[in-house]
Amino acid sequence: MVNIELKEKIAGEITVSDNPGSTIKKWRQEFGISKQELSREMNIAPSVISDYESGRRKSPGVRSVKRIVEAILRIDEMRGGSISRRYGTGVSSNALIDIRDYDHEMPLEKMIRAVEGANISGVSINRHVSGYTIVDGIKAILNLSSSEFSRLYGWSSQRAIFFTEVRFGRSPMVAIRVHPLKPAAVIYIQPEKLDDLAIRLSQIENIPLFSTDMDVRSIIDVLSELK
User: Fold this and answer.
1) pLDDT of 187-213, one tens digit each?
2) pTM above 0.90, yes or no
3) Least CB-packed of 31, 38, 49, 222 within 10 Å?
4) Domain holding 22: CATH number?
């Protein structure tokens, strides 16, 4: 479902911009969409997008802006909607990679099996999750305020939080220990190394800690298909 607030935000920013073309380019790149992809979705020539973005073509009118924004959001929705969901959380930092809330609970074991996770803490996984969050571990620790960190939990703390860019695994578990909300599980994506403190903190908090060798894109694809 298209995020109406996000649609209005992008369209409004383009419309009031002193340089609408560069603003279109900014949002296209923010969503990771090529000129060719956008032009195909709009059924126009790629040169039209290039001309808008470079300023060679007259600034698009309201109808054209609407078509551009709707095409960008449709492409994101077809890809799983991860960028739209990220903006829906109110987290300003790009530390948030993806977030999803399911309409049902599922056994944690099912999710861990899907991402080929290995339990490195020995904490029981006999629990359920209702969603997941994937964050850049370094950016999350350095850039997120306490209120923004809370928004990583979406609608429920009964979720798995995945961390990328894990060097030793210490900082994410320290952040989780001092925060009042606790996730159902923590998964490190391709960690470089795990020290004993990270494992010990997961045991103290009774939060199972896992590692996976899958890459982020594959994890998002797998988790989006879970029923």
Assistant:
1) 999 998 888 999 999 999 999 999 999
2) no
3) 222
4) 1.10.260.40
